[in-house]
Automatic annotation (TrEMBL):
Coiled coil: none annotated. Residues 1-67 form the HMA domain. This is Copper chaperone. It comes from the Bacteria. GO terms for molecular function: metal ion binding. PROSITE patterns: HMA_2. It comes from Adhaeribacter radiodurans.
């Protein structure tokens, strides 16, 4: 299990709702959340073999931007 972090421009719950169906259908993701109260609106994803480009493409499809920041190689599902 690894955790991926992305900087996004998703700033509200309504916007999170727009990305939800697109992120939910991506392979390998077991859990995700967007911290809309942080300055960089960080998207954290827990999963196995998650493709960062597919995540960025899903955000773009919903009308938002996402910049891949890093992968943390840890076990568990804590974001």
């Amino acid at each position: 299990m690894e955790i991926l972090k992305f900087k996004t421009n998703v700033t509200s719950q309504d916007e999170v709702n727009k990305v939800t169906p697109l992120l939910d259908k991506l392979d390998g993701i077991s859990k995700w959340q967007i911290s809309t109260d942080s300055e960089e609106n960080i998207l954290s994803i827990s999963g196995d073999n998650v493709n960062p480009q597919q995540v960025e493409n899903a955000l773009t499809e919903a009308g938002f931007t996402g910049e891949f920041l890093r992968v943390l190689g840890i076990s568990g599902e804590e974001l």
